[in-house]
Amino acid sequence: MKKTNTEMFDSISERYDFLNTFLSLGIDRLWRRKYVKMLLNIIKGKTLDVCSGTGDIASRLRKKKLNREFDIITSDLSVKMLTKGKTLGNIIDNAITADAKHLPFKNNSFSCVTIAFGIRNIYNIENFLNEANRVLQKEGHLAILELTMPNNFIMRKLYSLYLSVVVGGLGGILSGNFPAYKYLTSTIKNFMTPKELSQIMKKHKFREIETQRLSFGIAVIIIGKK
Ligand SMILES: C[S@@+](CC[C@H](N)C(=O)[O-])C[C@H]1O[C@@H](n2cnc3c(N)ncnc32)[C@H](O)[C@@H]1O
After folding, report:
1. Is the CB of 184 under 6 A from ligand 1?
2. Closest ligand 1 atom to the C-alpha of 17?
3. Whose CA is nearest to atom 27 of ligand 1?
4. Model-wide pTM > 0.90
5. By C-alpha distance, which of 160, 153, 147 is closest to 214?
6. In the chain, what are the domain boundaries?
7. What pLDDT is attached to residue 3?
8. Of the candidates 134, 78, 140, 82, which has an alpha carbon nearest to the alpha carbon of residue 103?
């Protein structure tokens, strides 16, 4: 039987963070740092981290908030990813098992919804965008950090090779889970472009959309306002 997305993340939860950093040669940490810096400029109150996984972004936000007042709620469909986040000390409270397409929160609840390396795993992105818009307060922000394919033809070919050999191959060996890392590489290769994602965000009533491509376009930060 084909594994569901959640079973797949459950099965790689133990080694997820180590492999992220190892397979990206630590570059994901630079992207995360930049993303959190941008988040700190837009967070005005309660924040929801969707597809939170092991809570890396929530933990970074908590460490940086200094004496500013804001709560962070972490949510994910994989109980094992959240549990691992608790063991790591990234998630200390407010962890909710929830589908990003059916968020169990009232309308206008959050000043910011963030999703890091999660949106390409959601089967129906439009439902997630509807939900993100619904739970955001007026003028609240949706922030997305995601892996994408570079525009440049040569970079694209090289990155595609790296994804297949290093992430799919080495990730499969080190995690002992080839299907999971094959799946993760295919979601990167087949995901929409930042331009397409911004257009769908506009369709779902986000405005003032800012896009910042990182590291030759292998990652992107997109922020939009409700
Ligand atoms: C690649 S991980 C990213 C984790 C984390 N945000 C990070 O920065 O490393 C993707 C996460 O999205 C979660 N996920 C996938 N589909 C989801 C859905 N429909 N609703 C909620 N979480 C989902 C997975 O369980 C997994 O923990």
Report:
1. no
2. 9
3. 53
4. yes
5. 147
6. 21-149+192-225
7. 58
8. 134
pLDDT of residue 118: 95
Whole-number pLDDT of residue 21:
85
Q: Give the H or E element holding residue 212.
A: strand 207-214
Ligand 1: does its nearest atom lie under 6 Å from the Cβ of 140?
Answer: no
* Cβ of 99 less than 6 Å from ligand 1: yes
Dihedral sign of CA atoms 100, 91, 73, 215 in order: negative
How far away, in angstroms, is 100 Cα from ligand 1 center? 9
Q: How far apart are CA 6 and CA 78, in angstroms?
A: 5
Which residues in the chain come in under a pLDDT of 70?
Answer: 1-3, 66-69
What are the tens digits of pLDDT across the range 125-158?
999 999 999 999 999 999 999 999 999 999 999 9
Q: How far is the CA of 32 from the centre of ligand 1 (A)?
A: 15
21-149+192-225 homologous superfamily: Vaccinia Virus protein VP39 (3.40.50.150)
Report which ligand 1 atom has the smallest distance to the Cα of 10.
25
Separation of CA 80 and ligand 1 centre (Å): 11
Give just the sign of the alpha carbon dihedral 59, 28, 201, 192.
negative
Distance CA 156, CA 58 (A): 31
Looking up tokens 């922000």, which residue turns up? Answer: 141
